[in-house]
Specification:
- Helix content is about 5%, strand content about 55%.
- By secondary structure, it is an all-beta fold.
- It has two domains: about 1-40, no CATH class; about 50-150, Lipocalin.
- The strands form two sheets. It has an eight-stranded antiparallel β-barrel.
């Protein structure tokens, strides 16, 4: 399978580009080959995402929650806002295509902070963007939840 990743063609031997390391990339110049490091492929630094679905609440497609990520040496942090969230922060760590996070935010409905933890699976979409599939739980609530966020390219949402 061949997909475009940030202007390059990424080809995986035998299958899915979502979680394999050692992908082969051919840069825009014909005949140039290099290896894509998994840490580069799944690095979240400077990426922005918009929530597209969640089991915890209805997502407003006109004003979804938006996330801004930073990453250095596997440490991930950032902020989010929009839809039902006034302001939120998260911090955690990434290992390969998995991100463990803890988060806290304020909602438009309550002045009380909402906190929880999540495990995110990074998936590479056919168009080269990243999708985050987040399994999470709010503190004090054992109900498992799932949300999906997709990368926003410059000029998007």
């Amino acid at each position: 399978m061949t997909v475009t990743y940030r202007g390059r063609f990424v080809q995986e031997a035998g299958g899915s580009p979502t979680m394999r390391s050692g992908a082969i990339a051919r840069d825009a110049e014909p005949g140039t080959m290099s290896t894509v490091n998994e840490n580069d492929l799944f690095n979240l630094d400077g990426r922005r995402f918009a929530m597209v679905s969640s089991t915890a609440s209805r997502v407003d497609p006109a004003a979804p929650t938006r996330f801004a990520y930073a990453e250095a040496d596997g440490v991930v942090w950032g902020s989010y806002e929009g839809d039902t969230v006034v302001h939120g922060r998260f911090v955690g760590a990434r290992r390969g295509a998995e991100v463990q996070l803890n988060y806290v935010h304020l909602t438009k409905q309550s002045a009380h902070p909402v906190a929880g933890s999540s495990t995110n699976r990074i998936e590479l979409l056919q168009d080269g963007r990243i999708r985050l599939v987040e399994e999470f739980q709010f503190e004090g609530d054992d109900t498992p939840q799932v949300s999906i966020c997709e990368e926003i390219l410059r000029g998007g949402l």
